[in-house]
Specification:
This protein is mainly β. It folds into 2 domains: about 230 residues, no CATH class; about 40 residues, no CATH class. It has 3 helices and 20 strands. Strand 14 and strand 15 form a beta hairpin.
Length: about 280
């Protein structure tokens, strides 16, 4: 039986040179099997402070650390999210860099802008993109446009958030030496979330290394927590929540799916449908 390489978030994370090792799950011929765990360090650095970044325009939220270590600036910098006016991309990146990579002079310190990030061949940031797709056929077309003409939609597994699917890329290659790999050269981690009810896909190229760490020793890696916190806003299951029940006397008001039958029984009498007790 032939085996193919599937590329997904599980490909994170490689070891940063000079950083605390990152434990990785074993790799088999099917690809990378399970998410890695980050080994803890005895460093005395204080735990990171996280905030929830919410983008109601693009429809997602994610927990972000307040600060990260920036290689270019060689110091800890605030982490910011910059939204492209196109309404299809958000850059998540350290706020500053040095114009002269060999300098640490304040006069060479610059704030990152959208223009700066767009000009980089490999932006020093997470570039999270959002596209509308009608169906899985359009999803596959998107993957081929972004990652290679030989790519296809691979495994699709529902996440902890109902109606939101983690999607892998099928390279159609049995090994990295396979000729099929030339048409889908994805040997790095990707993050893809598909929401059929919203006809929307969120995708992010993660690369072959971790992106956000606490200090130059890599005593704490933030990538996994950030990605695991990702949530799609709005209705994701396709069930319209349109019926509203209100009981002013009891101070109760809530909405339920239209196909739920509601019957009020004051006390503890059981009946079919929805029973409220208070």
């Amino acid at each position: 039986m032939s085996r193919r390489i599937f590329i997904t978030l599980s490909a994170v994370i490689l070891v940063l040179s000079g950083c605390t090792p990152v434990e990785q799950s074993p790799v088999d011929e099917e690809g990378l099997s399970s998410s890695p765990s980050v080994s803890s360090s005895s460093s005395s650095i204080a735990p990171a402070s996280f905030r929830t970044y919410t983008n109601t325009t693009l429809g997602f939220s994610m927990d972000l650390p307040e600060t990260v270590y920036e290689y270019g600036a060689r110091e800890t910098e605030p982490l910011v999210a910059l939204e492209d006016p196109s309404g299809k991309t958000v850059y998540i990146t350290a706020q500053y860099y040095y114009a002269d990579e060999n300098s640490s002079s304040p006069s060479d310190r610059r704030e990152k802008t959208l223009e700066y990030l767009r000009a980089q061949d490999w932006p020093p940031a997470w570039e999270l993109s959002i596209e509308n797709v009608e169906d899985e056929e359009e999803l596959t077309a998107l993957l081929r446009r972004e990652y290679g003409s030989g790519c296809s939609t691979g495994e699709k597994n529902e996440t902890a958030q109902q109606g939101v699917y983690d999607v892998s890329i099928d390279t159609h290659a049995e090994s990295l030496d396979d000729l099929a790999f030339e048409n889908c050269p994805v040997n790095y981690a990707v993050f893809i979330r598909y929401v059929p009810a919203q006809k929307k896909v969120f995708y992010l190229t993660l690369g072959q290394d971790v992106s956000f760490i606490a200090d130059d020793m890599g005593s704490e890696v933030y990538d996994v927590r950030m990605l695991e916190s990702f949530r799609v806003l709005g209705e994701t299951t396709g069930i319209p929540y349109i019926n509203t029940f209100t009981d002013p006397a009891a101070g109760v008001r809530f909405t339920v799916p239209e196909d739920v039958t509601m019957r009020m029984r004051y006390g503890w009498q059981e009946d079919s449908g929805l029973v409220l007790r208070y």
